[in-house]
Amino acid sequence: MAQAMQPKVPKTTGSLFATDHRPHPLQDILIWVTAVLGVTAFISSMFYNLHLLSSWTGLIGILTGLYSQFVSVTTHERFATLMGLGSAAVGFYLGMAHGGLFGGVLG
Q: So where does this one cross the membrane (predicted)?
């Protein structure tokens, strides 16, 4: 009878963004990669001469963020991915405005 009264505790603790108490290692890695690429693209886009860095990291961050949105399971994962995806997009567009992906390198 005592076992029936105890609350059901999940066996795995899950991750920071998983509200279903299950581990999502792929989604966690994609969130962090998107966030790092997004912050790098956003900060480097503030400097005119770093347009190659900001445009390429922004582009890779956008692609990583879109795939992360596709495979995400919980709302917290989608929200965290969207923050990185937005900063990667802003960094990409400012990098494109400052010279683009190949500005000055190919000609």
A: 29-48, 54-73, 85-106
Asked if residues 58 and 84 have their Cβ atoms less than 8 Å apart, the reply is: no
Q: How confident is the model at residue 24 (pLDDT cuts 50, 70, 90)?
A: confident
Tokens of 15: 């991750």
* 66 token code pair: 């879109």
pLDDT tens-digit readout, 89-99: 999 999 999 98
SS (H, E, C) the chain: CHHHHCCCCCCCCCCCCCCCCCCCHHHHHHHHHHHHHHHHHHHHCCCHHHHHHHHHHHHHHHHHHHHHHHHCCCHHHHHHHHHHHHHHHHHHHHHHHHCCCCCCCCC
Q: Report CA torsion sign: 8, 14, 16, 19.
A: negative
